Amino acid sequence: MKNYKIAEKTIQIKFIDEGKHQYFRNFETEELASYQIIFEMINHLEPLTGLQEDENGLKYKIVDEKKLVDIRNDKGIVVIRCEIDKTKTTVYFIEGFTEIAKYEHILSYMCFTEVVADEGVISLHATAVTFKDKAIIVDNNNLTKLFIEQWIKMLNEENLISDDKLFIKLKNNQIVVYANPWNGSGNVASDYEGTLKTIVLLEKGLTEKIIELDGTEKMDVMVKKLGIMNETISNKKLFNFCVDLCDKVDIYKYQGKMKDLKNIFNKIYFN
After folding, report:
1. Backbone angle region of 191, left / alpha / beta, with phi > 0 → left and psi within -120 to 50 → alpha
2. Can you list the alpha helix ranges (DSSP code H) found in 137-255?
3. pLDDT band at 16 (very low <50, low <70, confident <90, very high)
4. 47 and 115 share a domain?
5. CA atoms of 270 and 243, how far apart (whole Å)
6. To pair with 18 at 20 to 30 A between CA atoms, which of 92, 100, 192, 220?
């Protein structure tokens, strides 16, 4: 069981097989943890009954002040149970379950995201790089994985913060970007924390165009990006964060062949 500091939050995680989670080594710390995530094996899981449903459609049950959630396989058999309280999440895998490392990765990310949300840390699915000592977020949802890998290689000496997931937060009147161990490739800048300069939306095109979005367009992009679809309490917090982000960060749409990303970033950075 080790402690990890991610996005200024120190948590303690007990993996069943730590060797399958080498990306976490960059984030190890001796600081005391305020939250635990523990993974264990169990020989039997009785399906939950009398379930409630939260604002996001998740079915759960409260037992002894703990929130219990079952995960079933394609045959409807409970193979994972999560027990969640204010200071700890315990995840039980049924004996014989064969995808432990995969679900330790997924569920530790989900648990951490829930914990830090109350502290204003937002999870975002996107790529981020450092450029000229600032962070640039690149949204590439419309591009193929191969195409993304090609333009990441173009950056050469620039540091990859994340090519999959990242965390952002309003801090000291700036939007800050954090590296994390749930990055897709694992090639992350250890303990990276930096100011977000801009967000670039990449689209393939025959001719080069760099378009700066106005306030309304920026809000439309970020509301969709963060999945704000209804009037829940958590979504109201996300909406307020969107307002702050759009007020402090420029967002550009780039259309072109993307043969020279450094030139593109320079144009945007010094605009």
Report:
1. left
2. 145-154, 215-225, 233-248
3. very high
4. yes
5. 24
6. 192
Distance CA 119, CA 142 (A): 31
Q: Which amino acid is at 86?
A: K
Instruction: Give the 3-state secondary structure percentages of the chain, helix then strand then coil, rounded to 5.
Output: 25, 40, 35
Domain boundary among 85, 119, 153: 119
Give me the pLDDT at residue 143, please. Answer: 55
Q: Are 104 and 182 members of one domain?
A: no
> Do 96 and 128 fall into the same domain?
no
Judge if 101 and 171 occupy the same domain: no
Name the average pLDDT for the chain: 84
Last residue of a domain, one of 90, 119, 148: 119
Q: How many domains does the chain have?
A: 2
Asked if 130 and 81 sit in the same domain, the reply is no
Contacts of residue 257, defined as CB under 8 A and 6 or more positions apart, other chains included, come to: 204, 205, 206, 208
Contacts of residue 228, Cβ cutoff 8 Å, sequence gap at least 6: 235, 238, 239, 242
Tokens of 5: 């500091």
Q: Which residue has the tokens 């943890």?
A: 33
